[in-house]
Amino acid sequence: MPYSIDQFDWGTTPLGPKETWPAALRTTYDILMGTEFATCATWGPEQTLIYNAAYIPFLGARHPAALGQPIHEVWSDVWDDIAPLLRKAMAGERVYMENMHLVMTRNGFPEDTYWTFSYSPVRDGDRVEGIFDIAIETTRQVMVEQQRALQVAETTHRLKNTLALVQAIAQQTLRGVSERHLVRSFDDRVHALAAAHDVLLKQDWNGADLSGLIEAAIANVTERSRVHIAGPSLGVKAPIAQNISLLIHELATNAIKYGALSDPAGCVRVSWTHDGAMVRMEWREEGGPPASPPSRKGFGTRLVSLGLTGAGGVEMDYGPGGLTVRLSASAESLLEA
Questions:
Q1: 36 vs 196: which has the higher pLDDT
Q2: Could you give the CA distance from residue 263 to residue 256 in angstroms, rounded to a whole number?
Q3: Measured between alpha carbons, how far is 118 from 281 in angstroms, rounded to an integer?
């Protein structure tokens, strides 16, 4: 074989000597050889394969024998997967695939590989003669992400087991306590933490959707239809998500005991805005009894007073129409970048 692709004798292939190539094929070849991106192309009835130096690592042990061969022979091990995509390109369509999984034997043994690539039709006049392929192998990135996701799932599983163990220990330790409502409150708060973890898991612990976080916290204590939620989509930082879940849980529990949700006609409206620098949230109870300040400050009251991020920013209005809580925090402290 030649020292370089440019020295290859194309006269030994169905394409014939380079000097006889049509202008469209010569242009395609020049584009291939002039780019640093891994690129290949096919041409003619046999779909003869042409590729540049950056594409060689993709071929493994198949280079240099793959040069000038029909593409279905070069990639026979993955042909069933890519042939339908090539047919689309040959029909004049553009094809784009992201992180496509292919099991290849390019080095003599099966290996899982992942690819992001695009196929574009190559024309000579009005006729499609082949395809132009720009590709990136994403195997390493995908496998790193898969490993990370596996570790997150394992951590979450262990965390759930820990929370379940805490509940079991508490129930056994406190089984002689006569004030059972205190035990139930503790149990409910652990459930609120678990709900936050479930929302975080859906995002692989890369923050949590604020709306989903509120809905999960509400679902543990009351009917979703009695709480109206409205606000833009916001991603909350993972450590803050647990604070918000507990805060919403405490407000909902209080509303059930003393506020709007203690009345069948009552409801709660939770809304928030994001003006760039600040996030502002409002918890407004309607249709219940008049609100009054608590006679003593328990755990729930202290938790709510810490606000969205644990740094305050809370206004509580005990009005005749019900409790209204206004919370604010800087976007920098609350939201994922």
A1: 36
A2: 8
A3: 44
Q: Which of 235, 234, 236, 255 is nearest to 244 (CA)?
A: 236
Residues whose CB falls within 8 Å of the CB of residue 324, separated by 6 or more in sequence, listed in order: 282, 283, 284, 285, 316, 317
- CATH assignment of 5-137, among 3.30.450.20, 1.10.150.120, 3.90.1150.10, 3.40.50.360: 3.30.450.20
The C-alpha atoms of residue 278 and residue 274 are separated, in whole angstroms, by: 6
For domain 195-334, give the CATH superfamily.
Histidine kinase-like ATPase, C-terminal domain (3.30.565.10)
* C-alpha to C-alpha distance for 128 and 121, rounded to whole angstroms: 6
Give the integer Cα–Cα distance in Å for 194 and 163: 7
Helix H or strand E encompassing 209: strand 208-209
pLDDT value of position 100: 97
- Placement of tokens 């692989």 in the chain: 204
* 208 in Cβ contact with 241 (< 8 Å): yes
Distance separating the N- and C-terminal Cα atoms of the chain: 52
Token pair recorded at residue 297:
């400050």
Report the distance separating Cα 259 and Cα 268, nearest Å: 9
| 207 token code pair | 């923050």
What confidence tier does 208 reach under pLDDT thresholds 50, 70, 90? confident
If one counts every other C-beta atom within 10 angstroms of the C-beta of residue 70, the result is 18
Residue 253 CA to residue 247 CA, distance in Å, equals: 10
Lowest mean pLDDT among 138-142, 168-172, 304-308: 168-172
DSSP line for 79-102: HHHHHHHHHHHHTT--EEEEEEEE
User: Which H or E element spans position 116?
Assistant: strand 111-124
Q: Which tens digit of pLDDT belongs to each residue from 33-88?
A: 999 999 999 999 999 999 999 999 999 999 999 999 999 999 999 999 999 999 99
Supply the DSSP symbol for 131: E
Residues 161-180: tens digit of each pLDDT = 666 667 666 666 667 666 76
